[in-house]
């Protein structure tokens, strides 16, 4: 009689600490998911720097080159050594600051993430300096000491060879035309909200910008400049507020398309406390209310800004800050839907 060999007992795998470089690259892949993610982070930094003019230059959909230039307050020379380290920021100093945060950035991860998946060069000058400084970064640290150089007011950040060390990610982003379209759409959204800032976006080597807006006192003028006259002519001004101190305080203003507007898909441009975000629940609520009004196979366009108490908005819920969590979301959606039904 043959004796069956005893089943081999497998030892549980050992748990070990990941190398810091691996951890940083994984984190970078979550924050900078594609070129448009990098552009969004850089433009938001420019807005935080009180810029009045922001220009973006892109090559091969952002994989070869992303250049964002602004005329903001610049970066201090003494801050350059830690500029691209993870969790270095000028926006907050303690966790409680998140309850009243008004800046677009706050985590100190965006620039660091870019240095882990691309080659980053920063040129900056602050008010009163006779010259600017240029420095390159790799994996969160300076590659060399800052070099004095000629510079115009503000900061210019250049990212080259994005995802050069993430082969799979780079292969999935080979369609540069698609990514450039996403970047143009992003800049268009910023341009129709931040109407006191001039925006431009163009491809490398192109003589004409695909986005070119100038500061204007009217949001409707900005929409006309970015999306064209036909869109602007078919928009209805909307606004609502709840100033009852015993309940959740909010203000809303913007535009929504009328029944004459024809589009292939619903477009929603939503800012909450000046932060560009997405909100699927609000989009669905709008579509439900308008489905009986819109012509068959037609969609709506919605451009809106909500102003809420900062303590009612949790901005720290998504790696790319694409979404926020509203502590009063259900009440807000219910009241807004009721308002739409009255229109």
Automatic annotation (TrEMBL):
Q: Which CDD domains match?
A: HATPase_MutL-MLH-PMS-like (cd16926)
> Looking at the UniProt record for this protein, which Gene Ontology cellular component terms does it annotate, in alphabetical order?
MutLalpha complex
Residues in DNA mismatch repair protein S5 domain copies: 223-337
Q: Which UniProt keywords apply?
A: DNA damage, DNA repair, Nucleus
Give one GO biological process term. mismatch repair
Where would you say this protein principally sits, based on its record? Answer: nucleus
MF (Gene Ontology): ATP binding; ATP hydrolysis activity; ATP-dependent DNA damage sensor activity; mismatched DNA binding
Name its cellular compartments. Answer: Nucleus
Which SMART domains does this one have?
DNA_mis_repair (SM01340)
Q: Which family does it belong to?
A: Belongs to the DNA mismatch repair MutL/HexB family.
The protein's name in its UniProt record: DNA mismatch repair protein S5 domain-containing protein
């Amino acid at each position: 009689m043959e004796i069956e060999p005893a089943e081999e007992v497998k030892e549980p795998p050992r748990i070990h600490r990941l190398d810091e470089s691996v951890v940083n690259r994984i984190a970078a892949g979550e924050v900078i998911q594609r070129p448009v993610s990098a552009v969004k982070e850089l433009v938001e930094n420019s807005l935080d720097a009180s810029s009045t003019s922001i220009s973006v230059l892109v090559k091969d959909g952002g994989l070869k080159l992303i250049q964002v230039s602004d005329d903001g307050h610049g970066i201090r020379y003494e801050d350059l050594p830690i500029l691209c380290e993870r969790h270095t920021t000028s926006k907050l100093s303690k966790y409680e600051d998140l309850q009243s945060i008004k800046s677009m950035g706050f985590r100190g991860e965006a620039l660091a993430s870019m240095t882990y998946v691309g080659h980053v060069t920063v040129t900056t000058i602050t008010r009163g300096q006779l010259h600017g400084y240029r420095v390159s970064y790799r994996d969160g640290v300076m590659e060399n000491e800052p070099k004095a150089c000629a510079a115009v007011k503000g900061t210019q950040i250049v990212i080259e060879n994005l995802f050069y060390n993430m082969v799979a990610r780079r292969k999935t982003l080979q369609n540069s035309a698609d990514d450039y379209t996403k970047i143009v759409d992003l800049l268009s959204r910023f341009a129709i909200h931040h109407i006191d800032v001039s925006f431009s976006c163009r491809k490398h080597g192109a003589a004409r910008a695909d986005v070119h807006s100038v500061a204007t006192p009217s949001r409707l003028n900005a929409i006309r400049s970015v999306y064209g006259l036909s869109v602007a002519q078919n928009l209805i001004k909307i606004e609502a507020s709840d100033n009852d101190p015993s309940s959740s305080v909010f203000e809303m203003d913007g535009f929504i398309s009328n029944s004459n507007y024809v589009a292939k898909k619903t477009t929603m441009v939503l800012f909450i406390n000046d932060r560009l975000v997405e909100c699927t629940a609000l989009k669905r609520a709008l579509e439900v209310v308008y489905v009986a009004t819109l012509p068959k196979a037609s969609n709506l366009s919605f451009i809106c800004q909500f102003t809420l108490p900062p303590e009612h908005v949790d901005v720290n819920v998504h790696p790319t800050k694409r979404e926020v969590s509203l502590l009063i979301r259900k009440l807000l959606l219910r009241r807004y839907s009721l308002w739409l039904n009255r229109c």
